[in-house]
Design a protein that fits this description.
Helix 1 links the parallel strand 1 and strand 2. With about 180 residues, this protein is mainly alpha-helical. The protein has a 3-stranded parallel beta sheet. About 35% of the residues lie in helices and about 5% in strands. The longest helix is centred in the last third of the chain and has 18 residues. It folds into 2 domains: about 100 residues, Rossmann fold (3-Layer(aba) Sandwich); about 55 residues, no CATH class. The chain contains 6 helices and 3 strands; from the N terminus they run βαβαβαααα.
């Protein structure tokens, strides 16, 4: 039965390309769902980004943000695959017991924090880690002076690399010329 509110829903079907702008809304809706709650990732786009995974705004899989119970493969998934995924979810629900599920414990299940995604691909809470990995181990602290500028300046290409590029270009031109 379709419900207009996440508070009345048991199953969330995530389908299509998931963008960075949609992730906070999806996580918020997931957190609003009452226990027990299940997630079905439908198609290659929701599962791993699909053909758009290289895009700057596309998330490569919703399972990095919310727990997914069943993955339905396909691009687009066939009706049979969707029915099979629903049957697998039904089997999972049937196997559960009051003693093993997290929502019947005293502490209950924790809500998932809503991700804070900035205007770029990174999470602003991880700026320090990103700086350390991209600029080197000591770059997280203030880099100043000639040493800091030299590290960030583009370096000239070595002569052996230039020679290999010229050889590859000559080989390509020789192949293009008719015999």
């Amino acid at each position: 039965v379709m419900r207009p509110s996440p508070r009345q829903s048991d199953l969330m079907i995530v389908s299509g390309t998931v963008t960075k702008k949609m992730v906070p809304a999806i996580v918020r809706i997931y957190n609003q769902m009452a226990e027990p709650r299940y997630v079905l990732s439908m198609g290659a786009c929701a599962t791993g980004g699909g053909p758009f995974k290289e895009g700057y705004s596309v998330v490569s899989g919703i399972d990095k943000y919310i727990p997914v119970d069943v993955y339905v493969p396909g691009c687009p998934p066939t009706p049979e695959a969707l029915i099979f995924g629903l049957l697998k979810l039904h089997e999972k629900v049937e196997r559960q017991s009051i003693t093993t599920v997290p929502w019947y414990r005293k502490a209950g299940s924790e809500s998932i924090p809503v991700p804070v995604l900035g205007p770029d691909i990174f999470d602003p809470r991880k700026v320090q880690i990103i700086k350390e990995h991209t600029l080197g181990a000591g770059a997280a602290t203030a880099v100043s002076g000639a040493a800091g500028k030299a590290r960030l300046q583009p370096q000239p290409m070595p002569d052996d690399v230039k020679a290999r590029i010229r050889a590859a270009q000559a080989k390509y031109r020789a192949q293009k010329q008719p015999a």
